[in-house]
Write a structure and sequence with these properties.
Strand order of the largest sheet: 14-11-9-8-5-4-3-15
Order of helices and strands: EEHHEHEHHEEEHHEHEEHEEEHEHEHH
Helix content: 25-40%
Shape: globular
Distance between the termini: 34 Å
Structural class: alpha/beta
Largest sheet: 8 strands, parallel
Strand content: 5-15%
């Protein structure tokens, strides 16, 4: 599959010893996964699912035509402390959409490298810009080594449009967007992206690549009931997902295809309930096509869901599954960008300790942890640092994840070298 420039490999010696054994300790999701029972997709052995970072590490968004950008990401990583590297793995919520003292402390002490607007606001572009400018001013050597922030928002449309008010168009639901021509959607996505850019937001938690089957909207709480899907046909969804990614990219906005491997066949919403399970989706389901299309179009982020997929990996939630992240997303779909979690402070994972959530996600091959609470983020950074200090293999995963995040930041002008 052509990746249109997103498959550059950055060769860098990280000094990490990569073992094939799994992470030890009390966390269960980092244990060995069984291969998917499908002869068309046989994932590598568990210890091979994450590329040894001292050999080749993908740096998302850094193209082969720009080796200087790849070098920039690698040099930035090598100059960071371990705690600064760990901080780059976090996308922390702004409580009440404000830069609170708790968030400032997380940036200063835990080196948190990205933030997101957690609530709906009608402050308009000027009000949002005041917050994003204050955030970017905190990118200092002591905090983030001068690396600026991804500032994200849920700007899908319909009921899920976090940023409103003067300067922001009211965006219709994805179901309405799916009825438009592809040219129309791409042009409007570019316009919406331009508005985000004016407000200082550079990452959109969109597009939704989930496909709800015909007649399934009423029973599908996370997507169908909110009209968040582009349609009920994978072909329609993939086409609209692709042009949304392209339109946003034309405005300089990074996009996030979500919620891999799809929430179209579940009933519960992982934000509010636990034990959300998909008993339908297989590794080669047609509903994978929109995610493949987003990757092909250049989406630098893919968000992994908090549901369980019994026909892919019954033993783990997707966000903690090496089979799903390493075997299906990285291996089969060849995604080498930034793997983002869904919110790791959601009800679906609330019974797990913050340490287990963080360690299990990174051990599964994840890169960027989405967290609402500064207190939870602090517990997670502490746990990751402790695990990295006692396990060289895990430390290599942390460094590889940080490099992928830095690669994306280079691509979006958030890292300056030379």
């Amino acid at each position: 599959m052509s990746k249109r420039g997103w498959r550059t490999i950055v060769a860098i010696a990280l000094g990490a010893s990569v073992a094939t054994a799994c992470i030890g300790g009390a966390t269960g999701a980092a244990g060995g996964d069984r291969p998917i029972a499908d002869e068309l997709l046989v994932p590598p052995a568990a210890g091979d699912l994450v590329t040894p970072p001292e050999i080749e590490t993908v740096s998302a968004g850094v193209t082969a035509a720009d080796p200087a950008a790849a070098t920039c990401a690698a040099q930035t990583l090598s100059s960071m402390s371990e705690s600064q590297r760990i901080g780059q793995l976090f996308l922390l919520g702004l409580p009440g959409n404000q830069l609170t003292s708790a968030v400032r402390t997380s940036i200063a002490q835990d080196h948190v490298g990205s933030v997101w607007f957690t609530a709906t606001t009608s402050a308009g572009t000027a009000g949002v810009r005041a917050v994003t400018s204050a955030v970017q001013a905190l990118a200092t050597d002591a905090a983030t080594h001068g690396v600026r922030f991804f500032v994200a928002a849920n700007q899908e449309g319909g009921l899920v449009q976090a940023l409103r008010g003067a300067g922001f168009s009211r965006i219709p639901s994805a179901l309405v967007q799916g009825s438009w021509t592809l040219a129309t959607l791409q042009a409007r996505a570019k316009a919406w992206g331009t508005q985000l850019r004016a407000a200082g937001v550079n990452l959109d938690f969109a597009p939704v690549a989930d496909v709800v089957p015909p007649g399934g909207d009423a029973t599908n709480a996370p997507i169908g009931q909110l009209q968040r899907e582009y349609g009920h046909d994978p072909l329609i969804v993939k086409q609209h997902v692709s042009v949304f990614v392209k339109g946003m990219a034309q405005a300089g906005i990074a996009t996030t295809a979500k919620h891999f491997p799809g929430l179209g066949y579940v009933t519960g919403n992982t934000d509010f309930v636990s034990s959300v399970t998909d008993t339908v989706t297989t590794p080669h389901a047609a509903t994978m096509q929109p995610f493949a299309a987003a990757i092909e179009a250049g989406a630098p982020f893919v968000m992994v869901s908090l549901a369980r997929y019994t026909r892919i990996d019954p033993g783990h939630l997707a966000v903690f599954s090496r089979t799903i992240i390493g075997g299906l997303l990285r291996g089969y779909l060849h995604f080498d960008g930034v793997v983002m979690s869904d919110a790791l402070t959601a009800t679906a994972v609330a019974t797990m300790s913050p340490a287990a959530r963080a360690i299990d996600f990174v051990a599964a091959g994840g890169d960027l942890l989405v967290v609402r609470s500064p207190a939870v983020a602090n517990a997670m950074t502490t746990a990751l640092a402790a695990q990295a200090a006692r396990d060289a293999w895990f430390r290599g995963l942390v460094d590889a994840a940080a490099l992928r995040v830095l690669g994306a930041k280079v691509a979006y002008g958030l890292v300056t070298c030379g």
